[in-house]
Design brief:
mainly alpha; 9 helices
Length: about 230
């Protein structure tokens, strides 16, 4: 630790550099923290479970007797996150009900809100160079987009709603795809959306593994060359 006299010998530029280094070294969310590494390992089963989450898979496990099997635990954890996301989704619709948006915008706004919040989260922490939270934001965004792809995949059933909500409300994407004249391609749009979502999910997770286990373990190599 530098003493007061040591700081007196530093130039202004060196003092700013030293202050920045101390700030970075004290960041709680730096990827080298043991807690971050442990969380990434614990989170791994959910990431790979989520990567296979589609309409056919959900239908195969829904209403099945599940206690503490793998699918039951993953689905319970996923339900907690999805229900929180659904509050954001419904808030997007709610704002349109209040201000009187056109029906198409009202249907679209739920999904827009659901995806916009993680994008803002990513942008906020990217501007602050906190790449650990940027990676987590990428996973959050992908988790929402996987849900959107699943939601799109049964757009041809106008009154079928996500099983955890119930009711007979009109399906957002049935209405939007019908208005756009692309309802017959709902399977294709859902498939492309899901492919993008899973790519972002796995890419974000692998990036977090990289900065947690590999990036900060590389020794600092001094540039070799003649001193001038």
């Amino acid at each position: 630790m530098k003493s007061y006299k040591d700081y007196e010998k530093l130039s202004v530029k060196e003092m700013f550099k030293h202050s920045e280094n101390e700030k970075n070294s004290n960041t709680i969310t730096r990827a080298s923290d043991l807690g971050v590494r442990a969380a990434l390992v614990i989170f791994m089963p959910y990431i790979f479970w989520l990567s296979k989450y589609n309409d056919a898979y959900v239908s195969s496990i829904h209403n099945r007797q599940m206690h503490l099997d793998f699918d039951g635990i993953m689905l319970a954890f996923h339900g907690l996150i999805s229900n929180a996301n659904m509050i954001i989704h419904e808030s997007g619709h709610g704002i349109c009900y209040i201000i009187g948006c056109p029906q198409f915008i009202t249907a679209l706004n739920g999904t827009l809100f659901q995806l916009a919040l993680p994008i803002l989260f990513i942008y906020y922490y990217y501007k602050r160079s906190n790449m650990t939270l940027v990676g987590l934001g990428g996973i959050w965004f992908a988790q929402n987009l996987i849900y959107v792809a699943w939601y799109m995949s049964y757009a041809h059933q106008p009154h079928r709603y996500p099983f955890f909500l119930g009711g007979d409300a009109i399906h957002d994407f049935w209405y939007m795809f019908s208005q756009l004249g692309v309802l017959e391609y709902d399977w294709l749009i859902a498939g492309v959306t899901r492919f993008v979502a899973v790519s972002i999910l796995l890419g974000s997770y692998l990036y977090l593994l990289y900065i947690a286990f590999l990036k900060n373990e590389k020794p600092n190599r001094k540039k070799r060359g003649r001193k001038i």
